[in-house]
């Protein structure tokens, strides 16, 4: 690789994804576990999109956002899982430089987009519960499309900045990424460049992305709780809360895993990998389950779809 002080990032043609530091005998078990989880992600999220597209009763802003959430979960888990599974059987465990850039770019794009989309979904629930008579007017098709497009836009900008700055670093310490996918923090450990500017940009982006989305979610739910508690009937309060419980579950799993990973010191990389598993694979697997098990409309639409298939067969 050359001298540490003079080696440039352009000298690197590939990286090695170290993955999980376990006995080789456990690789088969991990592969089967990853395969099972990924199959559930594909089935659950693709199924959710099919249900939302085919059932006219679900042609509402809430399910439009949920369909986009399923698409995002499906894509960003597919950016990570296939390569991670193939590395359980690979001796070299290598990923090309271009492959690493692509993986980081798309993963960052979709995970940031999901954060903004969850904030949008919280705002949607706020309007639905606090201003139900104006819901269809305020949450128009045009506005919904703009909110989703804006989520993707901010995700794209964040990804371009994060990826371009990460891969302008000089990687001369090692080619071995101590992770199961290309992520910013383990890549920074390989660099001999000055990381001050990159860390400041990362910190700023995190502040711009995380705090506004969390504030929108918290403020929306404060208003929602305040409104629901004023509903006189127990059944009415239960119905109102049931429309929000699924979203709160998804938010808790995603943000809990993200905070845990980024608050874990670099001296415990295995803990970071476990936390990363939560939002790269566990969250995309749980999202359709949470929404289907706790949502009456989705369960009815699924039963209707299964009845149609049984009649055809």
Key traits:
transducer; mainly alpha; globular; 313 residues; sensory transduction
Account of the protein in words:
Helix content is 73%, strand content 3%. The chain has 313 residues and is mostly helical. It has a 3-stranded mixed β-sheet. α3 packs antiparallel against α8 (234-263) and α8 runs antiparallel to α9 (269-293). The N and C termini lie far apart (61 Å).
Helical proportion, percent range: over 70%
Total count of strands: 3
- By DSSP (H or I, 4+ residues per run), the number of helices equals 10
Tell the overall outline. Answer: globular
Strand content: under 5%
N-to-C span: 61 Å
Strand order of the largest sheet: 2-1-3
Brief summary:
Putative odorant or sperm cell receptor. With 313 residues, this protein is mostly helical. The protein is 73% helix and 3% strand.
What's the layout of helices and strands?
Elements: E1 14-17, H1 27-54, H2 61-87, E2 94-96, H3 97-130, H4 135-138, H5 141-166, E3 176-177, H6 184-188, H7 196-228, H8 234-263, H9 269-293, H10 296-312
Parallel strand pairs: 1-3
Antiparallel strand pairs: 1-2
């Amino acid at each position: 690789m050359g001298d540490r002080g003079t080696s440039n990032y352009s000298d690197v043609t590939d990286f090695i994804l170290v993955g999980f530091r376990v006995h080789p005998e456990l690789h088969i078990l991990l592969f089967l576990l990853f395969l099972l989880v990924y199959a559930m992600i594909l089935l659950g999220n693709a199924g959710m999109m099919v249900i939302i597209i085919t059932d006219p009763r679900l042609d509402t802003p809430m399910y439009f956002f949920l369909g986009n959430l399923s698409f995002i979960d499906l894509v960003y888990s597919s950016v990570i899982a296939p390569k991670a599974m193939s590395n359980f059987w690979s001796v070299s465990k290598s990923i090309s430089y271009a492959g690493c850039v692509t993986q980081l770019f798309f993963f960052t794009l979709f995970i940031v987009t999901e954060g903004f989309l969850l904030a949008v979904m919280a705002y949607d629930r706020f309007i639905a519960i606090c201003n139900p008579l104006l819901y269809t007017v305020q949450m128009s098709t045009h506005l919904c499309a703009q909110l989703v497009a804006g989520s993707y836009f901010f995700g794209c900008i964040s990804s371009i900045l994060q990826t371009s700055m990460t891969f302008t670093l000089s990687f001369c310490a090692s080619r071995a990424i101590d992770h199961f996918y290309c992520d910013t923090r383990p890549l920074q450990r390989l660099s001999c460049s000055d990381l001050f500017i990159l860390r400041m940009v990362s910190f700023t982006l995190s502040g711009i992305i995380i705090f506004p989305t969390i504030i929108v979610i918290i403020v929306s739910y404060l208003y929602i709780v305040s409104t629901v508690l004023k509903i006189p009937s127990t059944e009415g309060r239960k119905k109102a809360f049931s429309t929000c419980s699924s979203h709160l579950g998804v938010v808790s799993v995603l943000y809990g895993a993200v905070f845990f990973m980024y608050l874990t010191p670099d001296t415990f990389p295995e803990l970071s990998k476990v936390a990363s598993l939560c939002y790269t694979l566990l969250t995309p697997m749980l999202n359709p389950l949470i929404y289907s098990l706790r949502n009456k409309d989705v369960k009815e639409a699924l039963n209707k779809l299964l009845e149609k298939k049984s009649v055809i067969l």
